[in-house]
Every structure is written in structure tokens, then in C-alpha cells.
Amino acid sequence: VFHSLWCLGAQRKGMVIYMNKRLLSLLLASVLSVTLITGASASSIQPHASDYLAKYTLAVVPGSNTGEVILAYSVVGTGSSTTVGVKKIEVYRSNGSYVTSITGTTSNGLLRSSSTYNSGTYIYKGVSGTSYYMVVTVYASNSSGSDSRVITTNTAKAP
Which residues are CB-contacts of 143 (< 8 A; sequence separation ≥ 6)? Predict the structure, then answer.
């Protein structure tokens, strides 16, 4: 009788250990997912990337139409920034060959004035089946000066 109760107790302990490992795995997966979703940002390294840039996140994903890849961006300036966003996008094929450049302006929405935050998307229309990445210059400024950072994105294949 003692042996049967001991085995039952061991099974229960084993289940508790299994459940704790499962819970820990789920927790770690959740933390990793949140970290990946928020992307690499200057604020995760130091309180501010500079006196002008606080945080930036970029990703390239396949578009919904043939030949499209989409740059999704978010740029946050410090409280004193007045112009913020994407100053330049250089598009490259995955083999490193240069394709084109796009200059950010307030007209095309890549830059925003009178704001400390700018996010949006830019659709590049390329060739179906080709993989692209982008080299993006994020930017923030105010009356005292400006700063920028150059970030190379991930690669995405145009459908």
C-alpha cells in the first residue's frame, strides 16, 4: 500500500514538474515573441540613441500584390524632436546589387514635421520572385540639430 501511494505521489510530483517546465517554456516563448515583435531599438540599448532619436523599428515583408515588398517603420524622436521619420531608403536585391533609392519627404509621408513620432509603410514594386532588403536612414531633428542612424533590414521575397 505504501509503495502504491509513493508512486502516486511521485507521479503527481512529476506532473507538477512537467507542468512547471511547460509553464516556464510558455513564459519564455511569450517573452521572446514580444522581444522579436518590438524589434531592435535604440532604447533597448540605452535610454536614448541620441539627443534626437529615442527608438526605431523596421521590417520588410512580402506585399499582397505581385512584385511588392513592404517596409514597415516606426521612428520615435525624443521629446524635443520636431521632424522625425525615414530620410532615405536604398533598395537592394538579396545578392547585394543596388536597385534604387527613395528620399523621404513630408510629401511622401516618410518624414513628419511638428511631431516626435512617425510610423507607416512604404511599398516597393519590384519583380515577382525576387528577394529584397533595404538600407534605411532614420532621422530626427529640432532647432538645435539633428541625428540619423542607418539600419539594414531583413530580406523579404516579393510574391
Answer: 82
